[in-house]
Design a protein that fits this description.
about 35% strand, about 240 residues, alpha/beta
Length: about 240
């Protein structure tokens, strides 16, 4: 019996890892004069493992793959003051682009520079997409019942609900034209309620739908639920470790 349960647990872990989408962090590192710094190290913790990258001749780096969540980054370079970048948000299938990071020569500041990441108001990837994070969901009264349709309709005026509240209409689209993606699984009917405390982020596409979600005349609602790794990263970020 124990062996059967163990195999079932492994199967669930495999399914979850297959459906999981990863994101990336891109950025550029320069010195106080604005010149690119080559070979600077950028590291972060993914659980108990270290993930790192090195800047190229233009001072640019790509930190990947990263599961969705919140990360603290550390920038290091020989002869330079260490810099920490905290609370960096990584979203599935998205690139998080940091503002230019400036490192100062050792002794120039004599302090540890700590920067907190702020989510940009405009998404450079384009597309008509509205995104909401777990922290914002917790503050929305409409989200506490876990009804994904009510949450989506409250995010943008492009979505209208039917009289009975069972259907969503994206910019005048027909009923049944909405695609729901929950942790990478496509659902069109019998959409489950998900407690707001279990939702990591929600993205609503009312136009410019990425091809990977398939063809639809309506819109796409993408839900990512929280993983153990994300909860761990959030805790570490809040502690400043």
């Amino acid at each position: 019996m124990k062996y059967t349960i163990f195999l079932f647990a492994l199967l669930l872990m495999n399914i979850n890892s297959t459906a999981q989408a990863f994101g990336e962090i891109h950025g550029k590192v320069v010195d106080a004069a604005g010149k690119p710094i080559e070979s600077a190290q950028v590291i972060t913790m993914v659980g108990s493992s270290v993930v790192g990258a090195t800047t190229d001749s233009l001072g640019k780096f790509k930190l990947k793959p990263l599961s969705s969540g919140i990360y603290n980054l550390e920038f290091r370079m020989v002869g330079m003051e260490k810099l920490e970048y905290t609370s960096v948000q990584v979203n599935p299938d998205k690139i998080t682009r940091l503002p230019v990071v400036t490192l100062h020569e050792m002794g120039e500041l004599n302090t540890l520079d700590i920067i907190t990441y702020k989510i940009p108001l405009i998404q450079v990837d384009g597309g008509n997409v509205t995104q909401i994070q777990a922290k914002e969901l917790q503050q929305m009264s409409v989200s506490h019942g876990g009804n994904l349709k009510n949450i989506a309709a409250s995010l943008t005026s492009d979505i209208k609900k039917s009289a009975n509240g069972e259907e969503l209409y994206f910019r005048g689209s027909r009923s049944g034209a909405v695609i729901y993606m929950i942790d990478g699984v496509k659902i069109r009917e019998n959409v489950p309620n998900i407690p707001s405390s279990g939702i990591s982020r929600m993205m609503v596409y009312t136009g410019g739908v990425p091809a990977k979600y398939g063809d639809t005349t309506g819109g796409v609602i993408v839900i990512e639920t929280k993983s153990y790794l994300e909860l761990y990263n959030e805790k570490m970020a809040s502690q400043g470790n």
